[in-house]
Amino acid sequence: xxxxxxxxxxxxxxxxxxxxxxxxxxxxxxxxxxxxxxxxxxxxxxxxxxxxxxxxxxxxxxxxxxxxxxxxxxxxxxxxxxxxxxxxxxxxxxxxxxxxxxxxxxxxxxxxxxxxxxxxxxxxxxxxxxxxxxxxxxxxxxxxxxxxxxxxxxxxxxxxxxxxxxxxxxxxxxxxxxxxxxxxxxxxxxxxxxxxxxxxxxxxxxxxxxxxxxxxxxxxxxxxxxxxxxxxxxxxxxxxxxxxxxxxxxxxxxxxxxxxxxxxxxxxxxxxxxxxxxxxxxxxxxxxxxxxxxxxxxxxxxxxxxxxxxxxxxxxxxxxxxxxxx
Length: 326
Known about the structure:
Largest sheet: 9 strands, mixed
CATH class of the largest domain: Alpha Beta
Strand content: 25-35%
Distance between the termini: 15 Å
CATH superfamily of the largest domain: Fructose-1,6-Bisphosphatase, subunit A, domain 1
Shape: globular
Number of domains: 2
Radius of gyration: 19 Å
Number of helices: 9
Order of helices and strands: EHHEEEHEEHEHEHEHEHHEEEE
CATH architecture of the largest domain: 2-Layer Sandwich
Helix content: 25-40%
């Protein structure tokens, strides 16, 4: 398979031996996106997850990187927590999401992505294990401007002031869940616009921190593992990220202990010094276009984000599929 890449931003180096290693991470998200894109609209979310996980693991095993999977979705058999991929290169820890939005792909809906986050060993946050967290994400102008204990209108007014816009000009992303009905009503009461998303804990957080995405904030209750991975990307982008653990049973309340009311800031959620992020669109959406197929080729769109060099690079890649043609 030959590939042609069209960079549309400054070159970004990952903290793992530079440009070559950054492309190895990107190869893995591209492989996962390509593998599961063929399941679009076919009603098989398990097939989507399995294909993406298998392809991402195969690409990582061929990458030459030495990596430990630290953050992984539940029930991801191909890239479970604790998996060590031995490639002989510099050691890194990985947060993996072969496909965020497997059900989106299966139903032919938008906003599914494949993603990887790499940090130095021990660089991911160590927080008590809970299923869910309350989160509030915003862009670079909102650093220090939000407080989880303040009324929604106060937080949105401060974000609007930082953006030099009106509250009614803001767009807030919220996952479409029954638990968010009161939150959606509260945001609507402020006059801000709302974009509800079927899936996308990670994608919505990145959009909130990425200038020009059309999303000014992402709020609600989300998955812990997606939150910790997303916080790394938001840190690279200079955004703001606050979170509070949300225990759902006695076991989780015991694990949290005296941290029940603690609000985690970005420094606690993403303590790593070197962070690299690769994201590839699967079905397309506000963050990235999805995989497109042509005569003998497929085209992917990706973001590569580096904290070390403070860069965001957009890539469009053509994957020539001559061996599959005919």
